[in-house]
Amino acid sequence: MIEDGTFDKFDNLENLILNSNKIQNMSSEVLTEKLGSKLKHLNLNDNEISLSSLNFKYLINLKSLSIGFNHNIGKELKSSSTWEFPKELANLTELYFYLCKITIIPDNLFKNLM
């Protein structure tokens, strides 16, 4: 479990790599406003997360999101045809979600990223 505000101690953190840590979810207070003001690259590859367990609210400067090899994402997209990336991620230029066992992509998934 990642403690709330853990990364707020870093005033200039732009790249956060948390891959292969068996993360299942994150409190809404991990990806905070302070962190989001500087963070440009977030790597959550090879964990056990689902999209709905992440709070993207403050990640307005994020350019790259890597969430590959999280099998729960494929299951989640298959069961929820209404999930969409939030408008706060509109500045994304790179999105990686490989090996998530995705079998269906909801029509609105990328609506807010365009």
Automatic annotation (TrEMBL):
PROSITE patterns: LRR (PS51450)
InterPro entries, sorted: Dev_Immune_Receptor, Leu-rich_rpt, Leu-rich_rpt_typical-subtyp, LRR_dom_sf
Key words of the record: Leucine-rich repeat, Repeat, Signal
Classification via SMART domains: LRR_TYP (SM00369)
Classification of source organism: Eukaryota, Metazoa, Ecdysozoa, Nematoda, Chromadorea
UniProt keyword Glycoprotein present: no
Gene3D superfamilies assigned: Ribonuclease Inhibitor
Name this polypeptide is given: Uncharacterized protein
